[in-house]
């Protein structure tokens, strides 16, 4: 009898341990390291007066450390909550740290220490090599995020809203990451110069309608005088955090599971619409802080469509 009770107790303890989330160690450590780098970069912005393209040399490491920190801790949480393919996801998360985050942030920080531009820099052989390393890491990061997303989608989840929030967040995030590739293409002026046989120190740009390095918003540095592809890149990229957060908030305030799920889907389409709108605005050479009438009309239509869809979901749910 005692032996039977002890066996049941061991089985219960094992079941509780299996249910307890075990956050992915390397990604969690990576997020902590990004927090440290962000703090160091913030100090650098205060004590180091050097600038690159009109911005403090430590602004880019600060922004990327904060962004990578959010990315890493979100994936660490997602992987920690899986029940299937744990070992495969653990290795994929580890490769993401070693093959994507660390090479990318190391290259950015290395160039900041040197006091030169990290992105689109072909001034010297060293600068070109550093940028190629960053590009390779970015491609690998996109692919790894896609593969991680596939394995995360195939998990069994009781919470249907979260089961939709994670894949939709990954899809929009991948789209946001893809905006970065638009920045690496030569501008029309650069393409013409390259066609003429000129060697350029800079190939690619994030500003549309002006040169990189003009007036920018505080902290983000986004252009205030022309289109800036980084806005859509940033917003789309962080769907990975925003949509699961929306699902978690809805779980607290909305009792009906079907309603939560439909609201998450509506939110995902709305978020994707905002990302697309910001990309369209930037590609027309228009600063995010100076939208024209066409942009405002499109934004108003998007808000109205999302609000109407959410209202219909709530109304239909209330009648059941």
UniProtKB/TrEMBL annotation:
Its transmembrane ranges are: 21-44, 64-82, 89-110, 130-154, 161-183, 231-250, 262-282, 294-316
Taxonomically, the superkingdom here is Bacteria
What residue spans carry the region label Disordered?
1-20
What are the UniProt keywords, alphabetically? Membrane, Transmembrane, Transmembrane helix
Task: Please identify the protein, giving its name as recorded.
Answer: Uncharacterized protein
Source organism (scientific name): Nonomuraea rosea
């Amino acid at each position: 009898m005692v032996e039977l009770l002890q066996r049941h107790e061991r089985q219960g303890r094992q079941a509780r341990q299996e249910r307890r989330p075990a956050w992915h160690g390397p990604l969690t450590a990576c997020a902590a390291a990004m927090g440290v780098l962000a703090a160091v970069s913030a100090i650098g912005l205060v004590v180091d007066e050097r600038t690159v393209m009109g911005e403090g040399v430590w602004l880019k490491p600060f922004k990327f450390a904060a962004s990578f920190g959010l990315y890493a801790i979100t994936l660490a949480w997602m992987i920690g909550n899986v029940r299937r393919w744990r070992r495969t996801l653990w290795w994929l998360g580890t490769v993401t740290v070693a093959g994507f985050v660390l090479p990318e942030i190391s290259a950015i920080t290395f160039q900041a220490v040197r006091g030169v531009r990290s992105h689109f820099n072909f001034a010297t052989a060293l600068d070109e090599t550093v940028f190629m390393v960053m590009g390779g890491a970015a491609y690998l990061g996109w692919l790894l995020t896609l593969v991680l997303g596939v394995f995360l989608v195939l998990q069994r989840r009781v919470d249907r809203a979260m089961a939709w929030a994670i894949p939709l967040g990954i899809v929009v995030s991948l789209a946001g990451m893809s905006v970065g590739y638009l920045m690496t293409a030569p501008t029309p002026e650069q393409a013409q110069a390259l066609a003429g046989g000129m060697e350029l120190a800079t190939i690619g740009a994030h500003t549309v309608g002006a040169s990189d390095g003009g007036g920018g918003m505080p902290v983000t540095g986004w252009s205030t005088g022309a289109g800036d592809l980084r806005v859509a890149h940033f917003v789309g990229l962080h769907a990975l955090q925003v949509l699961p957060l929306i699902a978690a908030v809805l779980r607290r305030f909305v009792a009906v599971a079907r309603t939560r799920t439909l609201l998450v889907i509506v939110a995902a389409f709305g978020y994707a619409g905002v990302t697309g709108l910001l990309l369209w605005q930037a590609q027309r050479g228009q600063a995010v802080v100076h939208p024209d009438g066409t942009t405002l009309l499109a934004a108003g239509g998007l808000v109205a469509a999302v609000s109407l869809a959410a209202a219909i979901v709530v109304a239909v749910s209330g009648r059941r």
